[in-house]
Amino acid sequence: MAAFPHKIIFFLVCSTLTHVALAGIFNKRDFTRWPKPRCKMYIPLDPDYNADCPNVTAPVCASNGHTFQNECFFCVEQREFHYRIKFEKYGKCD
């Protein structure tokens, strides 16, 4: 009788892992539905202070065709160019 709960637990764990693996393969992320970056949180209050962007790879494509490492780098660059570059999409530029 003790083997019965172990089989149920094994089945539940395997089915959960299978669901997670297959969802990652078949469900593509629609980056167009994600909100635009909130650049205010990356802009330092003191103009003499440089923003310290995290070393995280989450590509952001700008209107100038440049792919930035993440939205922090995009926002800092956008501020330095006086908002002449615009957000295009999440992901690498084509």
Into which percentage range does the β-strand content fall?
5-15%
Kindly provide the radius of gyration, computed on alpha-carbon positions and rounded to a whole number of angstroms: 21 Å
Helix amount, in percent?
25-40%
State the order of secondary-structure elements, H for helix, E for strand. Answer: HEEHE
Assigned CATH class of the domain at 57-93: Alpha Beta
Could you say what the CATH topology of the domain at 57-93 is called?
A: Wheat Germ Agglutinin (Isolectin 2), domain 1
CATH architecture of the domain at 57-93: 2-Layer Sandwich
Q: Give the termini separation.
A: 59 Å
What's the number of extended β-strand segments? 3
The biggest sheet, with number of strands, parallel, antiparallel or mixed sense and barrel status, is:
3 strands, antiparallel
Helix count, DSSP H or I runs of 4 or more residues:
2
Please state how the strands of the largest beta sheet are arranged side by side: 2-1-3
What spatial form do the alpha-carbon principal axes imply?
elongated
- Secondary-structure content class: alpha+beta
Mean pLDDT: 81
Low-pLDDT runs of 5+ residues are none
